[in-house]
Amino acid sequence: MFILMVLSAFFSCCEASFFSLGQTDRSLLKAGGSVSRLAVRLLENSERLLNSILLGNLSVNLLTFTISSIVTFKLQQQGRADLAGLIAVGSLLAVILFCEVLPKNVGVLAPRFFVLLWAVPLSLVVRFLQPVLPILRVTNILSRRLFCPHFLAEPYLRIGDLERAVERSGEDAALLKREQRVLQNIVSISDIRTEELMRPRSLLKTFHPSVSFEQILESLQGKLPRSGYCLLTEADSDEIAAALSFIQFPMLSADSAWENQFEPIIYVPWSSSVAEVFDRLQRENRNVAVVINEFGETVGILTLDDIIEIIFTREQGRSRRLLNQIELKRIAPECWQLNGLTSLRRLQRKFGVSFDGYSSLTVGGLIREMLERLPKTGDICRVGSLEFHVMEVSEGNDLTVHMITQEPR
After folding, report:
1. CA separation for the pair 197, 322 (Å, rounded)
2. How, if at all, do strands 240-245 and 199-200 pair?
């Protein structure tokens, strides 16, 4: 019984640790050694893994209670009813506490450690139970079609649900303002185009496939790119083909096959919404989306981290995220300092000025569209009650602009 209880605890710990791994943990496992990659392969077929764990755990527990029942029955025949009852209750409590509750709690506390510890024996269990798993899968499908033939999975959450939650949050005093702001940001990403929030190609640092690990470290000079990813181009062009999070760099070395740790990216059109990109990244388990224009050329990237930051930050400031600059800085009662990456959507929301008729999404694009040329210091443009003065043009054609708010003429 002791051996069976140890096996039951093993299965419970495996279930908790493997299925509590986060995205970061999985990315780190991909960059690890052979045992880490074995764990990743097990997780790639999560249904097979879960069925193997549950079947193994159920079988071991049934054997445990069978032996306990046999021992209890024999003790009762010998007239030792007190001892038989003690063994029956004790075995039940031992299975609950030491085979279920405790192993699962420990597995959740340190999932990556136990995943690496149990990956090899669990892979042997999965291989041993492989002939039985198709039977379980067919039984599951037949039972669903027999008892729930018209069952359709509903979406986890709809935009309408979020909008109603935002409306109710204004009435419900129990909801904090921060929660309401997050809900509003979630709703807003369905209306924001990807090109409004992407990191422009001019701000990205890319590497050719022939580059070595040492060359990448040398070129960085101790400063990580703001995107948080090392971007690898195609062999015969400058188009981005793969990405590797810098979080994984401490686990890599010059003599490892580090180039195999780059993960594929997805390609999205510039006109798609941020919500659509977020959905694809989640569905395909990717972290980086390359934004392309109507000619199929790369114009920027949008990462999963960017979208999460947009949802949970107070202000959806692109300049702060990309350049670590304050997007709107008040320098006088009617004068604001901003830069070319400032979103027109934000100005419209804050100052109530309409930019209808213009195709640009940023202040820099608006000024170029109105001037029909590249801006230079001293240029002035006016839209409604806003007057834009170009104060400085940097080497990358980024602008420092003073915006004066006036009454409409």
Report:
1. 10
2. unpaired
246: closest CA among 279, 213, 270? 213
Q: Which fold has domain 189-312?
A: CBS-domain (3.10.580)
CATH dotted code for 324-405: 3.30.465.10
Listed by start position, the domains of the chain span 2-147, 189-312, 324-405
Nearest to 284 by CA among 310, 306, 266, 259: 266
pLDDT digits (tens, 9 = 90+) for 371-395: 888 888 889 998 888 889 998 887 6
pTM as predicted: 0.51
CA 123, 129, 132, 138 torsion-angle sign: negative
Quick one: which of 353, 366, 396, 352 has its CA closest to 196?
366
State the pLDDT at residue 289.
Answer: 92
Low-confidence ranges of the chain (pLDDT < 70): 31, 149-163, 165-180, 222, 248-260, 314-327, 395-397, 407-409
β-strands 335-339, 329-332 pairing: antiparallel
